[in-house]
Design a protein that fits this description.
It comes from Bradyrhizobium symbiodeficiens. This is Tat pathway signal protein. This protein is an alpha+beta fold and 331 residues long. Helices cover 44% and strands 17% of the residues. It contains 14 helices and ten strands. It has helices at 3-9, 19-27, 66-86, 112-116, 134-143, 157-175, 178-186, 192-198, 214-224, 227-239, 254-273, 283-286, 291-297, 325-328, and strands at residues 39-44, 47-52, 88-95, 98-105, 149-154, 188-189, 202-203, 243-249, 277-280, 305-312. Strands 1-2-4-3 form a four-stranded antiparallel β-sheet, with helices on one face. The chain has a four-stranded antiparallel β-sheet with strand order 5-8-10-9, sandwiched between helices. Strands 6-7 form a two-stranded parallel ribbon. The chain starts with a helix and ends with a helix.
Length: 331
């Protein structure tokens, strides 16, 4: 199987049967940190549970598992939307570390967000600089509505420049952190063979980089993957964006991180449905010493900024792979 064939197979149209496998397949197409896919699904009767897979955590970039639980929230939102399309009302409840989703039959309800699930991707590329119309901005902002979650939408160039300064400062701190860099490299898949072997991780061409043998890519990465070069890239990417959105929950705990994930996923799906691209620029929330300053700059006070995304109009890139349901479902 080629890379393109594997990417397409996970994104074929949603089928009614087998129900649980199909719902899990669509859930796994959710955004998640480093494409670690840190989830385990279990199904019993009319109930599907999503639990964290702590073996796939990223302790350097995500020491408190914040991004991991946000990722679970993203998956839960996909599952809820897919279930509705198949004629099931899905009711997620937080049970400790798990999200337990009860399914109840209901009239099928197709939606633009559910239709966007197979097409959504995180596009780590320079956008074309076009601004988004007010109605577009209203729709993406409304998509973020979730109890106890605030969305801060910024389109003014001065505000985006302010966020850019924090992104660059955070990126510099991370690139000087040896543990962060080791962890990041461990999740990069430099070519199709590596990506197909694991069906996870950050596929280099999905970030606009060439596919290379790992024996060549890793030495070249040390030569060309520099702090100044990456900061230049992020500056250009943010300058080309139509806007930035920051999500922040009222409290900083697992249930609220999951809520942020649901809002985050709806934002990405609504952006996709409207022809927009987006990507994460989470450096200001990932560097613990920088996070309080970033929060203050946004007027959040003691609240934690959870997720930072830029959006705009840009190119299609290769989509990342997902492990098939059989590898993420447990009895």
């Amino acid at each position: 199987m080629t890379y393109d064939e594997a990417a397409k197979s996970s994104r074929v149209a949603l089928q009614a049967v087998p129900r649980d496998r199909e719902l899990v397949r669509f859930a796994t197409l959710a955004a998640n940190s480093h494409n670690t896919q840190p989830w385990i699904f279990s199904a019993r009767g009319n109930e599907i549970a999503i639990a964290p897979d702590f073996a796939r955590r990223c302790p350097a970039v995500d020491p408190d598992d914040h991004h991991l639980f946000v990722s679970l929230g993203c998956a839960a939102e996909n599952l809820v939307l897919a279930a509705s399309k198949l004629g099931w009302r899905a009711d997620p409840v937080i049970d400790g570390d798990r999200i337990v989703i009860a399914l109840e039959q209901a009239p099928p309800a197709a939606s633009a967000l559910a239709a966007a699930i197979p097409a959504r991707q995180c596009t780590r590329a320079t956008f074309d600089g076009r601004q988004a119309a007010p109605e577009i901005l209203r729709q993406v902002e409304n998509a973020c509505r979730e109890p106890d979650v605030t969305a801060i939408l910024m389109t003014e160039r001065a505000a985006i420049a302010g966020v850019t300064d924090y992104v660059l400062e955070g990126n510099s701190a991370q690139m000087r952190d040896k543990a962060f860099m080791r962890e990041l490299v461990s999740w990069i898949r430099f070519n199709e063979t590596e990506a197909l072997a694991t069906m996870d991780g950050l596929f280099a061409p999905a970030s606009g980089n060439p596919s290379l043998p790992s024996w060549l890519a890793q030495p070249l990465m040390k030569l060309f993957f520099s702090e100044s070069g990456e900061n230049k890239k992020y500056r250009e990417q943010l300058a080309s964006s139509a806007g930035v959105v920051v999500l922040s929950a009222d409290r900083s705990d697992k249930s609220h991180w999951i809520a942020v994930g649901r809002a985050c996923q709806r934002f990405g799906l609504q952006a996709t449905a409207l022809g927009l691209k987006f990507s994460f620029v989470n450096q200001p929330v990932e560097v613990a010493t920088l996070r309080p300053q970033f929060a203050t700059s946004l007027g959040l006070g003691e609240r934690r900024p959870d997720i930072v995304m830029r959006f705009g109009y840009g190119p299609d890139l290769p989509k990342s792979l997902r492990r098939p349901p059989e590898l993420v479902m447990r009895s």
